[in-house]
């Protein structure tokens, strides 16, 4: 039987004329989906849409200076708030500039809707000016996409887009609208229920498999919970915490799972994987039963698959059946929503006898904690991350770019709540951090949002400093500036005989660039200057604050499990 969608809520606005053009219909459809913020950049094919937005006082359009920023901002908005993020671009280059952000959303299961203008219907396929087959291009990187060929179909397309983006495993959806469709008059039906045959996300796990999982956990001697981003997407933090407190089973987190549980909880071992703690990696690889929830056994977590937790039985819970058994066989597979499955599992699990297991874990944790040192008056990246954690109490929304600083922040920042650590995980897209922080700040204007970026990634999207200034955002931007593409330089140090091919950067004075845009700028060169600068930036109101921190150019991010290797090859120290 085809799945019927829940009827949309009626518009809170006054009754509108029955006849509208396609662009007006689109805006009304967005309004009915509760859209309050839209990130985008106009162009020829989207001009009718922007003309309709001119009259939409209840939808706030944020003009970005590059479409990639719009897509990343939509992801930041979605991941900070749990609501669907929306971005828009014109045809051709505008649409293709969204591709990186859409791919990031696909890899990290972020619910966004991208709306693109398209050339008029009569010239589609004729290589018209600024034409690109955006639905063809984005087919592999969207959960669903559609080219709308009639104005009257816009309400149904928009409802379907939002429904698909936020249900099941969240992800990006793209709606492509030709310019003449935006201009075409129609009498829209906003109450029509689209039919989605075959789309039936399973949310309640199989009771028999849940009971089997409970028995396996109860009898385990060395159990561990491996928690990922699916916990956060489903809002399952209370259920995960209840399971851990009922059973005493330790928890390890992926990068995407940071915040899935209070990381100061004594049962939480924090992040594991390539740059995770030694003790967390040893724990999961010695486990006899692993409860994997909302994870996909990514290579940055597992290393060499055949050597990952070789003696464990795996219980794998995920709403996406395609992930179960994809990389690692699941002995007890459970398809379902993490929140619902854990709620059913918790009362069935008997606390296992794991005193000896915890004794071993505590020995590892005591011997091999994260540590750092300041060398010769240089500023340690880890010191900055540690200090930010202490100054915010782990309750700010931290958005990182990609590279060494990302991993150091993941090591040292102890999230107290879900949706407070946002990073490009699966795609690892440099340039993500600052735009995603913009989106997070628009989503949560009353919360402290921090952008932590590297000197390489920041230069990919820094032009939108003007967007932050224009909207008066209180947004501190901390640049861990080591004059290099740090992670590339690190790999060249370890694996390419120190041949630094195109990894050393000549940088501008970022503090002065911030000031040129109208932001506040601070340059930090000595360790004793760091704390004062961080406090000043965190307290700055009504304007972004760019803090250029001159960090140790030779500091390496450790521990490190080399790509494609196992815990046995982990590099612990320089």
Describe this entry's structure for a reader:
The chain has 574 residues and is an alpha/beta fold. It has three domains: 3-196, Rossmann fold; 207-367, Rossmann fold (3-Layer(aba) Sandwich); 381-550, Thiamin diphosphate (ThDP)-binding fold, Pyr/PP domains (Rossmann fold, 3-Layer(aba) Sandwich). 36% of the residues lie in helices and 17% in strands. The strands form five sheets. It has a six-stranded parallel β-sheet, with helices on both faces. A six-stranded parallel β-sheet has the order 13-12-11-14-15-16, sandwiched between helices. Helix 16 crosses helix 17 (404-412) and helix 16 (381-392) packs parallel to helix 23. Mean pLDDT is 96; it is low at 6-14.
Task: Describe the secondary-structure layout.
Blueprint: E1 3-4, E2 20-21, H1 22-32, E3 37-40, H2 47-53, E4 60-63, H3 67-81, E5 85-89, H4 93-96, H5 99-107, E6 112-118, H6 134-138, E7 144-147, H7 154-166, E8 172-178, H8 179-183, E9 185-186, E10 195-196, H9 207-219, E11 223-227, H10 229-234, H11 237-247, E12 251-253, E13 268-271, H12 278-286, E14 289-293, H13 299-302, E15 313-318, E16 332-335, H14 338-345, H15 355-367, H16 381-392, E17 397-400, H17 404-412, E18 421-422, H18 433-443, E19 449-454, H19 455-461, H20 465-470, E20 476-481, H21 486-495, H22 510-517, E21 520-524, H23 527-539, E22 545-550
Helix pairs in contact: 1-2, 1-7, 3-5, 3-18, 11-14, 12-15, 16-17, 16-23
């Amino acid at each position: 039987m085809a799945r019927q969608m829940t009827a949309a809520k009626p518009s809170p606005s006054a009754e509108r004329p029955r006849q509208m053009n396609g662009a007006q219909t689109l805006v009304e459809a967005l309004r009915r989906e509760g859209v309050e913020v839209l990130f985008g950049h106009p162009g020829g094919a989207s001009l009718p849409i922007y003309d309709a937005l001119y009259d939409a006082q209840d939808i706030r359009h944020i003009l970005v200076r590059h479409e990639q920023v719009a897509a990343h901002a939509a992801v930041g908005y979605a991941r900070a708030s749990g609501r669907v993020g929306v971005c828009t671009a014109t045809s051709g280059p505008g649409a293709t500039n969204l591709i990186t952000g859409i791919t990031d959303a696909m890899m990290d299961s972020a619910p966004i809707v991208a709306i693109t203008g398209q050339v008029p219907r009569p010239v589609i396929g004729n290589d018209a000016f600024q034409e690109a087959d955006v639905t063809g291009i984005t087919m592999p990187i969207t959960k669903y996409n559609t080219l709308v060929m009639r104005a009257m179909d816009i309400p149904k397309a928009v409802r379907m887009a939002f429904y698909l983006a936020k249900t099941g495993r969240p992800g990006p959806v793209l709606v492509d609208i030709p310019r003449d469709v935006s201009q075409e008059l129609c009498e829209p039906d906003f109450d029509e229920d689209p039919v989605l045959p075959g789309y039936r996300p399973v949310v309640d796990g199989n009771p028999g498999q849940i009971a089997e999982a409970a028995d396996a956990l109860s009898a385990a001697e060395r159990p561990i919970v491996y928690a990922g981003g699916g916990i956060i997407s489903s809002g399952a933090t209370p259920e995960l915490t209840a399971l851990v407190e009922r059973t005493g089973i330790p928890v390890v987190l992926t990068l995407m799972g940071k915040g899935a549980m209070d990381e100061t909880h004594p049962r939480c071992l924090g992040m594991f994987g390539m740059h995770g703690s030694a003790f967390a990696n040893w724990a999961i690889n010695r486990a006899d039963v692993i409860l994997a929830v909302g994870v996909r056994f990514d290579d940055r977590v597992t290393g060499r698959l055949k050597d990952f937790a070789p003696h464990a039985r795996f219980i794998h819970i995920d709403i996406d059946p395609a992930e179960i058994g994809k990389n690692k066989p699941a002995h007890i597979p459970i398809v379902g929503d993490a929140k619902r499955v854990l709620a059913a599992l918790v009362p069935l699990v008997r606390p296992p006898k794991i005193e000896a297991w915890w004794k071993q874990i505590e020995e590892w944790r005591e011997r091999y904690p994260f540590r750092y040192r300041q060398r010769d008056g240089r500023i340690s990246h880890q010191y900055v991350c540690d200090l930010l954690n202490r100054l915010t109490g782990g309750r700010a929304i931290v958005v990182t770019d990609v590279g060494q600083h990302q991993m150091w922040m993941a090591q040292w920042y102890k999230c107290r709540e879900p949706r407070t650590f946002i990073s490009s995980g699966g795609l690892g897209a440099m340039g993500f951090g600052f735009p995603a922080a913009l989106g997070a700040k628009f989503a949560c204007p009353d919360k402290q949002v921090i952008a932590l970026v590297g000197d390489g990634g920041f230069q990919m999207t820094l032009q939108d400093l003007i967007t932050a200034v224009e909207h008066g955002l209180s947004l501190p931007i901390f640049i861990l500036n080591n004059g290099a593409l740090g992670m590339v330089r690190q790999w060249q140090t370890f694996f390419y005989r120190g041949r630094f091919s195109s990894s050393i950067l000549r940088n501008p004075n970022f503090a002065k660039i911030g000031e040129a845009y109208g932001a506040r700028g601070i340059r930090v060169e000595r360790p004793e200057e760091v704390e004062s600068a961080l406090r000043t930036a965190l307290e700055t109101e009504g304007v972004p604050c760019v803090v250029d921190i001159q960090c140790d150019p030779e500091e390496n991010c450790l521990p490190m499990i080399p790509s494609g290797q196992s815990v046995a090859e982990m590099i612990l120290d320089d």
